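Encode chain A's predicted structure.
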Amino acid sequence: MRISHKRNIQRKLHKQKPLLTNTTSAVNNILKIETVIETAEIVDVVASKPIVASKSVVALTPKQQQVLDIVVNHTDGLNPKGIGLEAGQEKAKAAAWATGALKKLTEERLVERIQLAGNKVLYKAL
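Encoded structure for chain A:
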């Protein structure tokens, strides 16, 4: 049996195990929520100050913060290689260094990914 085939089978088996535990825990959570809903009390709310919706604070790693600072400084947009070079990385490793942090920043909606012609990409701060 090939090792890659064996690995695939093991991966499929591991995917099935959490499925059963998630469903039982979900049922237990639903039961807890139902009991809490039944015992809820009505409380008078006093509004002393208006509540202002603030932007959620995202915890960034130092690398992600450095990449975000570089992107913010370049308002016209910058490609991953340019970001890596700006951070002081080697020319060959610059794009790969910045890609991981840029992916997280785009998921958090701090940076916008702009697809240009072909495989060219620019990142701009929002």
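The beta strands are 111-115, 121-125.
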